[in-house]
Design brief:
- The structure is a single chain.
- This protein is mostly helical.
- The chain contains 20 helices and two strands.
- It has a two-stranded antiparallel sheet with strand order 1-2.
- The longest helix has 36 residues.
- It is globular and about 70 Å long.
Length: 488
């Protein structure tokens, strides 16, 4: 594929998104931006959340990871499923009953001002880093296969990508994203299925035979039983479960889409449907990864990083049609994570820190100007973070993503667990310090784990350790005598 063709496909896809934006953003207001006027069909949200939850990280990192980690990621996916069940049965009823726009409003009602700001602040930190990492993955591919050929600097590539995200989310917000996610999920799933068939055709082997070869090989191993291994199956399962609870259930971006559905029962149907489909989709990505490994072995292909395996094969070894499919799938996986992140960050900062929802004396025109300023500000922060990630691109992006999540979402896990499962009152002013100290302790535990714990290495379960330390810190600086918000 030529750089020109790649760029034309990118432009055509972007124009299609803009057409949807034009339709959905008409007559949009603040409630449209924040919660879609509570009019989103649950089945549309469920389908679109597949693309939003998987993102470009899953599209490239998970298939590329199979050669190193086999199918062990499937245990994480099983954990995801049970995490979604907890969200549907525990967190969604709470959010709907309290009629929240920002889910961190719960922390203010349960604990107080500083706990509220701490929760919202850690979400903003988590989402900025996570979304920047996801965007970097896609932008880096475009740089290598398009912009480098024309000697266009990386920062220009980043600027173009972020500008496109700003344009189609600025007015419609969550109401636009619900529908663009649906389109993008469709293209992403088609790309996975078609890529499997393209690889099968190039290898001259039917899909059924390649599947048999897969299940006869070590690559299909799901369960790792070595307890010291960071991907032991129990660690993977519970890490996946709590990653989902935190990165979806305690995340404004993902919950904002659920809260745009009018009724709780429909939001729960959305979550149950999405979680079931997600298991199938993750398995499809792992199968694709195995097929990529088969092809790489047959053609003696070596790449510096596992994330580079899929684009290298798609662009340089398969037919132009396969390259087009890959590119459309990658773009489709990238945009949902970027647009949703920018919208949710704008929502959280506008409501949780600027209090726009409570300022009834302020006219809508001024609120809109402030919201636009916040929107552009977070876009600038994304720009800076992506440039920084360019300097540290040394391992699989999904590994980095979950490592970051372990440190930044852990305090949120501890806060919500303490609020939901105890009746104690915390010393609110100490909460920010507890939430900062816990990740710092986790970092040192991780660095010295083999010396401290007889060779044990932490994996994704660092999230649980972080949440536990936050919980214990809150318990130490608490007293009896408070009802939970759920009982109040």
């Amino acid at each position: 594929m030529t750089p020109t063709l790649i760029l034309l496909i990118f432009i055509a896809y972007t124009l299609l998104l803009f057409a949807i934006t034009f339709i959905t953003a008409r007559r949009a207001n603040h409630q449209s931006f924040y919660i879609g006027n509570k009019a989103s069909p649950w089945y549309v949200v469920a389908y679109g959340m597949i693309g939003a939850s998987l993102s470009g990280v899953t599209f490239m990192s998970v298939p590329g990871w199979v050669g190193e980690t086999q199918f062990s990621y499937m245990m994480v996916a099983f954990g995801y499923f049970f995490g979604y069940v907890v969200i549907a049965l525990v967190l969604l009823p709470l959010y709907y009953r309290l009629k929240l726009t920002s889910i961190y409003g719960y922390l203010e009602q349960r604990f107080g001002f500083w706990s509220y700001k701490t929760g919202a602040g850690f979400f903003i930190l988590s989402r900025v880093l996570g979304a920047s990492l996801r965007m970097f993955l896609v932008i880096n591919v475009l740089q290598i296969f398009v912009f480098d050929a024309w000697n266009i600097p990386f920062w220009v590539n980043v600027l173009i990508f972020i500008a496109l995200i700003i344009i189609y989310t600025l007015k419609g917000g969550i109401r636009t994203i619900i529908w663009t996610d649906t389109l993008q999920t469709t293209f992403m799933l088609l790309a996975v299925v078609l890529s499997v068939f393209f690889i099968s055709r190039e290898l001259g082997e039917p899909v059924q035979k390649l599947m048999r070869n897969l299940f006869d090989s070590d690559m299909s191993r799901i369960v790792i039983t070595d307890w010291d291994h960071p991907r032991h199956f129990i660690k993977q399962f519970f890490s996946g479960m709590f990653i989902t609870i935190t990165m979806t259930g305690l995340d404004q971006e993902m919950m904002q889409k659920n809260l745009s559905i009018r009724r709780l029962k429909d939001a729960q149907k959305n979550m149950f449907t999405f979680s079931t489909i997600n298991l199938v989709v993750v398995f499809m990505f792992l199968v694709l990864g195995a097929f990529l490994v088969f092809f790489a072995r047959a053609e003696s292909i070596n790449v510096a990083m596992t994330d580079d395996l899929f684009p290298t094969i798609a662009f340089r070894y398969l037919s132009p049609a396969a390259g087009i499919v890959f590119l459309i799938g990658l773009i489709s996986a990238a945009f949902p994570s970027a647009d949703g992140a920018l919208t949710s960050l704008t929502t959280s900062f506008s409501i949780d820190f600027l209090g726009l929802e409570k300022k009834t004396e302020m006219d809508n025109a001024r609120k809109t100007r402030i919201r636009y300023t916040v929107h552009f500000s977070f876009a600038l922060i994304f720009f800076i973070c992506i440039l920084a990630f360019r300097q540290m691109n040394d391992r699989a992006i999904i590994d980095k993503l979950f490592t970051i999540a372990g440190y930044t979402y852990g305090p949120l896990l501890g806060l919500y667990t303490f609020g939901l499962f105890t009746k104690r009152t915390v010393t609110d002013r100490f909460t920010p310090w507890i939430a900062i100290i816990s990740p710092v302790l986790c970092y040192f535990l991780n660095v010295f784990s083999e010396e401290l714990f007889n060779g044990y290495r932490f994996g994704f379960e660092m999230l649980l350790v972080n949440g536990f330390l936050t919980f214990m810190g809150l318990l130490i600086f608490s007293k009896k005598g408070s009802k939970t918000v759920a009982e109040a």
